[in-house]
Amino acid sequence: MDAIKADGTENIVLIFTHSNYLKGSGGTEKCVIEQVSRLLQRGIESLHVFPSEAYSFLGTRPALYGVNRNDRFLGFFTPAEIALQVADLRSRLVSVYVHHLMAWQHVDFKQIVSGLGDADVPRVYFAHDFYSCCSSAFLPCLNPKSGDFCQTFDNSCASIPTCGDKLYRDHLREWRGRFREIFSWSDEIIVPSEFVKQTLAAVFPHFEHKITAWGHLRLTPDEMKFKTAADEISVTAGPNKPRLAYLGYKAEHKGWSIWNSIFNDPRLLRQYELFHIGSTEQYSPYVTTVSYTYHDGGSMAAVRALERHRIDCVVLLSVVPESYSYTLYESIAAGIPILTTARSGNIAHVLAASHNNAGLVFDTPAELIDFLNDVTRVNSLIEIPRQKYRLDSSVYLGATLSRCEDAYPGEASTEDSDLRFLSQAGDKKTSRCPAIAT
After folding, report:
1. CA angle 298-301-302, nearest 5°?
2. Structure pTM?
3. pLDDT tens-digit readout, 65-83
């Protein structure tokens, strides 16, 4: 237990996530990496807590949780042990960040934060997805206006296909009740996009006043991208063959089955050079895999990989609604058109708001593949000049720690202010600072 103790007098932020951010590669981990880095620049340490395995949110079995201090893993501890150390450190705590409680047990979270006692510590909940709304983080069918979800995606809900089932309704009532407790306890609720804000406010209307949309990345206009003769030559192939890329990690909810059908389609193989940006697995002789890591390359790592391999078009094939999607903004920053389907959530929302400047949204995967089979139309999409951008992390540290230069906030409006510039060629985006305490 002594391993948790933080020596010195530095201020500390307590961070809760669903995974070890030192090893993960998802959006939540990227966000935490940037936060920890920014805190250290300010001389603030972080104590990061995550589950040792996947527990049930409503479960009560004995559990262990890992602890990182900044970038050093300290070991696994019981909730009681961590709560005692939180109590010892509370005079030095300047904020609590709850990033994700997937794989957590609610009782364990309550026990650990009980160590805060009556300390007046700012508490920020980051709703990275829809986990607070439903036990399935994957919600392919949702109504943002009513907050109703009529279908789930993951196997844990396979026996309860709709929210109309009474057993599931009872479960859902308890689930959301626990999150109402957490939202009542939280001072702020930060979401990554207006798309998520609309849904969360519909499900938890009493907390709408606490919800702020704040994107993970800031886009600064860099230069215009024009297709040139040099672009006609692929890194690995002959001329005049468009380079099509799957960007991100391999996962079924990211549309892996659709990508699998693409790289096994003889006609598409004749018409395209295929790349997977973000993989080390050599799973097909017809796909060039390119690895990169956010840990090492930062917010521009994927952009540089896309540019280095002269990718012409990116497919983002998520079959569940994305709440943000780093890969979306990485593709936009590289000036590369995106193809997606209507089920991709914030990806489709952004492309629609861009008036097709950033790419195209198709109703079904079949329609997307039909479009790919028409190379003339694909080339016409590729040849449209597009703005390129520099990506910077947009780090939110809470109202009491954030300053204007740290981050760019999304506006609480019916249309994302982060998207307007995509439909306004040459209109440079001006960063504005929210009303925050300093």
Report:
1. 130
2. 0.78
3. 999 999 899 999 999 999 9
